[in-house]
Specification:
Helix content: under 10%
Number of helices: 0
Radius of gyration: 13 Å
Distance between the termini: 40 Å
Structural class: mainly beta
């Protein structure tokens, strides 16, 4: 059983920055895909950023150039640096690890005020 714990969410003004962290309870190989999703009220959960095969990254078009995903394997932690935040980035952000099964964190709220 893998547990993922997100942190770093909060309230920020438009144009501001936040850095989300996702700490895993166990070692997750860099060969395993991990990523960040978000879900805004009344909308479907969507991919924000992720590590895919070969260590490559992919981003939603809406966050390209503003968000950066990174990982520290020594700390079993994945990060999401979010810059130039917009009100439309407001959502609950979830971390996911794609192992034999998909493991999800509990989510962290990000609210961007205009």
């Amino acid at each position: 059983q893998v547990q993922l714990v997100e942190s770093g969410g909060g309230l920020v003004q438009a144009g501001g920055s936040l850095k989300l962290s996702c700490a895993a309870s166990t070692y997750i190989s860099s060969s395993n895909a991990m990523g960040w999703y978000r879900q805004a009220p009344g909308k479907q959960r969507e991919l924000v950023a992720g590590f895919i095969s070969g260590g490559r990254t992919n981003y939603a078009d809406s966050v390209k150039g503003r968000f950066t995903i990174s990982r520290d394997n020594a700390k079993n932690t994945v990060y999401l640096q979010m810059n130039s935040l917009k009100p439309e980035d407001t959502a609950v952000y979830y971390c996911v690890a794609h192992l034999r099964y998909d493991y999800w964190g509990q989510g962290t709220q990000v609210t961007v005020s205009s």
